[in-house]
Amino acid sequence: MSDLSRPTSIQGVFLEKIAQDFGTPLYVYDGQKILDQIHALQKAFSGVPLKIKYATKALSNVSILKLIKKGGAGIDAVSIEEVRLGMLAGFSAKEIMYTPSGVSFEEIREAVELGVMVNLDSIPLIYQYGEAFGDKVPACIRINPHIMAGGNLKISVGHKTSKFGISIEQLDEILTAVKKSGVKIVGLHVHTGSDILDAEVFLKGANVLFDAAKNFPDLQFIDCGGGFKVAYKEGDPETDIAEVGEKVSSAFQEFCKNYGRQLELWLEPGKFLVSESGYLIVQTNVVKETPSVTFVGVDSGLNHLLRPMLYDAYHDVYNLSNPDAEEGRYSVVGYICETDTIAANRSLSKIKSGDLLVIKNAGAYGFSMASNYNSRVRPAEVLILDGKAYLIREREKFEDLIKNQIIIDL
Ligand code: LLP
């Protein structure tokens, strides 16, 4: 399912041409790939009433959200701003799940006023929610199942000491809070981490919810979160979606039988839907040979793609301008005044100054984690759909860096 090729064109549109037309650094997304991923997930869970709630935080451009809607998915939002982006993209309130962590009650109230389902993440919040809305506005509860999962500790969020959700060991307190507050609970949720390879982990998370569900008579859905791992390089394993689909679906159907009602199964994939769709095209500014390393300095860095530095994440890189040249060893580094190594000690076809490089798997948590560090502007974004390249975000300008500054007279 994963695409480990190093394309020079997408849907017949040449990447070199797009870089010429829109400049670099440039985020490019293959819209068809996003639709294919949605369909692959729908297929893997075709035996159950599935609702996909795309994790907006992975890539939140409104045109991408519109495409996700076209593919038949809803969204999961983690801020009121993401809720609003979703609505701007045309999602109805019913298609949006709001899963905040430790936000102010004003934000929760705003989401409720917009008609969006809220995922309650603490016991005090259950009480507060009940006080404000009684049994009139149904909600979901995020359970922390105490499962250690995910590619690294920074993206493991379902273990005992994680800040997320309400510990499954506090089930009695949850039930007391629900009873006293009067909140109608219609959903239970887990999300244990990102880059989860093992299908069993998803089943384990689901089973925690199935066990807890007998205490909640009004359930309409079970939300198993996201976290499917994608491949970042040749030989890199990825989550077997068919296996997860089979395991979780059959356990879910069995659960529904015992529960006495057919519920919906919700999933919240981020990376799985958009990671592989994204390519960050950068230009080489300098090839710098040192006694130990040949550095390739590019017109981007941790301000545009933070994952390699934050998580030691591996992103495949290739030379778009000169794909068939003899290979050399390079470290591709950014232009930020930090050690922002994008790719260390890689075998790449010979690079010269001015060459275009492509950084793969840049769709998820690429642009959405970009910043203006070093007072650099953020890249433009282009979506390729039906063989056409659409500019879906302009490159920032110097004026954008200062537009909210109030420059005082001194
Ligand atoms: N649902 C919830 C409640 C989440 O917090 C997340 C991700 C997802 C779903 C989607 O997870 P995914 O399918 O994308 O793995 N910046 C990190 C990943 C952080 C994920 C945060 N939560 C990275 O670049 O690896």
Short account of what is shown:
This protein is α/β, with parallel strands linked by helices.
List keywords for this structure.
single chain; about 400 residues; alpha/beta; TIM Barrel; Lyase, Ornithine Decarboxylase, Chain A, domain 1; nine-stranded mixed β-sheet; eight-stranded parallel beta barrel; 12 helices; 20 strands; binds ligand LLP; pyridoxal phosphate; Ala_racemase/Decarboxylase_C
Q: What does it look like?
A:
The chain is an alpha/beta fold and about 400 residues long. The protein folds into 2 domains: about 30-275, TIM Barrel (Alpha-Beta Barrel); about 275-395, Lyase, Ornithine Decarboxylase, Chain A, domain 1, CATH 2.40.37. The protein has helices at about 15-20, 30-45, 60-70, 80-90, 105-115, 125-135, 170-180, 200-215, 240-260, 270-275, 305-310, 400, and strands at about 10, 15, 25-30, 50-55, 75, 95-100, 115-120, 140-145, 165, 185-190, 220-225, 265, 280-290, 295-300, 315-320, 325-335, 340-350, 355-360, 380-385, 390-395. Strands 3, 13, 14, 15, 16, 17, 18, 19 and 20 form a 9-stranded mixed β-sheet that branches. An 8-stranded parallel beta barrel has the order 4-5-6-7-8-10-11-12, surrounded by 6 helices. The chain has a two-stranded antiparallel sheet with strand order 1-2. β16 and β17 form a beta hairpin. The radius of gyration is 23 Å and the shape is globular. The model has no long low-confidence stretch (mean pLDDT about 95). It binds ligand LLP. Ligand LLP binds near residues 155 and 364.
